[in-house]
Specification:
Blueprint lengths: L2 E4 L4 H13 L4 E4 L7 H6 L7 E5 L2 E4 L1 H11 L10 H30 L16 H24 L10 H15 L9 H11 L27
């Protein structure tokens, strides 16, 4: 069986896990800590980053985009980049939006300050969270949620009428910070409705059992009717 080397709250790893579920594929999950990669990880991926998808002993795919493209090209059945060339380009644009802009402004700082720094030594920059970064990221989430509301209001899914990688990328980032309880769902009913539809899909269920040592999820995290 294939295996996925991942960290449970890493949004990029989460996107691969969601994609595997949507494709109906299975993989053994091997947990690693991105802030302390093992020698085995560096042997598979010189960059020492996650996710790493080991399809076979001869096929080791590194990086979220490479893994998703590999799965899209090698898995039979439903596709996550459907429709016309323009539709696929729009889905890819939104994936980049969440992986670059949203991660840089919101999910990256929140996950770093609230999770990663807890496990680093003082020499590595560990310690208590920098509250100004948390406050800034919390403020910056609001225009992103406004934008997701606009996208969700246009069609069934963010990039059009079909579920795509854009939805999985968005859900991967939002679910990671929802674990921390940092999304004001009540203020964004369109985003909440879209997210509830994704959250109720079979591909999402394994994510709802994730846990980080010493940091339990927000009370509503696993609740489908939050």
């Amino acid at each position: 069986m294939a295996s996925l080397i991942h960290f449970s709250l890493d949004p990029f790893c989460r996107r691969v896990r969601l994609a595997l579920g949507e494709y109906g594929s299975s993989a053994d999950l091997i947990e690693e800590f991105p802030w302390d990669p093992s020698h085995d990880i560096c042997a598979l991926n010189p960059a020492g980053t996650l996710p790493i998808y080991v399809a076979t002993s001869a096929a080791v795919i590194c990086g979220v985009d490479a893994v998703n493209e590999y799965l899209e090209e090698t898995t039979a059945g439903a596709k996550l980049l459907p429709g016309s060339a323009e539709a696929r380009a729009e889905a890819r644009r939104l994936v980049s939006w969440f992986d670059d802009k949203f991660y840089g402004e919101v999910s990256g700082p929140l996950l770093t300050e609230k999770i990663t720094r807890r496990f680093l030594t003082s020499a590595q920059g560990g310690g208590g969270p920098e509250m100004h970064r948390i406050r800034l990221a919390t403020a910056r989430i609001k225009p992103h949620l406004d934008y997701i509301s606009q996208l969700a209001d246009k069609g069934g899914w963010l990039a059009g009428e079909a579920l795509s990688l854009a939805d999985l990328a968005a859900a991967a980032h939002l679910s990671a910070i929802d674990y921390l309880g940092d999304i004001p769902w009540a203020d964004y009913p369109l985003v909440k409705s879209w997210y509830q539809r994704l959250k109720s899909r079979p591909s999402f269920r394994p994510l709802l059992s994730d846990a980080v040592r010493g940091l339990p999820p927000s009370p509503h995290y696993a609740n489908l009717d939050f």
